[in-house]
Design goal:
CATH topology: Leucine-rich repeat, LRR (right-handed beta-alpha superhelix)
Radius of gyration: 13 Å
Number of helices: 1
Strand order of the largest sheet: 1-2-3-4-5-6
CATH superfamily: Ribonuclease Inhibitor
């Protein structure tokens, strides 16, 4: 699907009625830094959409990723726990609610509450 786009750094898929992303769906985008999936129909997003051998230096995921998911009917359950882990490990910054970020205890924190360090 992403043939010839392996140097792509930013991908905006907002407002596309996307309900699911296939496992390893973004795995070939080895240079990706920002993915915008806001205002779609996603109820979950599994970690395996990023995991691939194309990211060998960072444990199978992008070294640094900004991910916008607000405006989706996400179900707040253990399937999203990887987002919290990714933020704790420092490779992921995820915006799940417009202006809010997912914290390590599965709560949303506003910009004023978010610890960027």
């Amino acid at each position: 699907m992403w043939k010839g786009l392996n140097s792509l750094e930013e991908l905006d898929l907002g407002y596309n009625k996307i309900a699911d992303v296939s496992p390893k769906g973004f795995a070939k985008l080895s240079q990706i830094k920002r993915i915008f999936l806001y205002h779609n129909n996603l109820t979950t997003l599994k970690e395996d959409v990023f995991q691939a051998a194309d990211f060998p230096d960072s444990g199978g995921h992008p070294a640094e990723l900004y991910l916008e998911l607000f405006g989706n009917p996400l179900v707040n359950d253990s399937s999203l726990a990887w987002i919290s882990r990714g933020q704790q490990q420092g490779w992921l910054h995820a915006e799940l609610v417009d202006g809010y970020y997912y914290d390590e205890e599965h709560h949303c924190a506003g910009d004023e509450d978010y610890d960027y360090d």
